[in-house]
Amino acid sequence: MLAEIDVAIIGAGVVGLATADEIAQRKKEVFVFEKNHSFGLETSSRNSEVIHAGIYYPEDSLKTKLCVEGKSLLYELCEMSGIAHKKLGKLIVAANENEATQLEKLYKQGRKNGVNDLMLLSQAELKKVEPNIEARAGLLSPSTGILDSYSLLKFLYNQARERGVEFAFNTEIIGIEKAGARYKVQIRGQDGISAFVARVVVNSAGLNSDKVAQLAGMDIAKAGYELHYCKGEYFSLGSKYRNLVSKLIYPTPEQAGHGIHVTPGLDGRLRLGPNARYVEAIDYSVNETQKETFYDSAKRFFPLVEPEDLAPEFAGIRPKLQAPGEAFRDFVIAHEEKMGFPGLINLIGIESPGLTASPAIARYVGKVVRELLD
Fold first, then answer.
1. Domain co-membership, 134 together with 237
2. Domain end: 295, 320, 345, which one?
3. Is 161 exposed, middle or buried (0-12, 13-18, 19+ CB in 10 A)?
4. Which residue segment(s) compose the domain that 314 sits in?
5. pLDDT, tens digit, for every residue of 26-38?
6. Of the N and C termini of the chain, which has fewer Cβ atoms inside 10 Å?
7. What is the dihedral of CA 319, 324, 330, 335, to 10 degrees?
8. How far apart are CA 200 and CA 30, in angstroms?
9. Rounded to a whole number, what is the distance in angstroms from the first to the last CA of the chain?
């Protein structure tokens, strides 16, 4: 007879860890399965480490609601737990009149979304805030910040373990099938192939979440769950640029991402990125031929930058639901009962602002799980 557990969470990224911690507080038996050798090795640790305010997305979307809620929860968690972070603020800058008009639209969208501290800045006002930035106008988001993502991941992992969550690393899900009102889950680990039964399965597999949904028997094309990999690369700037800007500096957003921005680290060191390029395969190398594109993008608003000072740093992959040129797609956070899979909860397309939203996503999923198990 197969062992039975309450909840199987697939994926130990920041959302999987936060969700495991949330569910374990209700004294449920939670196991987390991760194909990599440790937690948070993919999208969760290969990003800008920004705590977003919730400006960009439609006001009724999950991305907006969970980002705005998650931001408050994340700052509170960082304060209480000693996780390194800084509420630096962010400037979105306009290089010309057309982009200045876009800033006004972003301001209105942000206000609709409940981001009530936004300020439009004139050229003179912007220059007082950031003397080394050249722009026609700016939009200031004081509540945007940065954090040490590894410290957050480690804290969530340790706290989940303290609450009784079991972790199985180097363990790949190779089969999910309905077994009455439960799911038989087949895994391949260091000791070979085995199986167990779970009352609830939470698919938080990030870049592989569409494949996991397919393993469970879902028609992902019909459901609109097919993911598209969008690569983002980063270049670092030399030590002479340290502390030359005090805030995150973003251009007006582009279709696939928020544009190549300047991000100060917690130590004041500056980084440029990410760009946004759709790719066919997961590959974390940085294409050094992109250096000129990064330089040209940054030079528009950060004239002090010189091309020889850019060095390739790292890359990440976004799990996007929208294909190139397609319109906005929201997070998928769905209990698939109507699709014939009661007890299966899919989290698909959790890209930016997923890190910021993670505590709120965990609460959202935790509520669904409680309704299923209580």
1. yes
2. 320
3. middle
4. 90-142+228-320
5. 889 999 999 999 9
6. N
7. -60
8. 10
9. 24
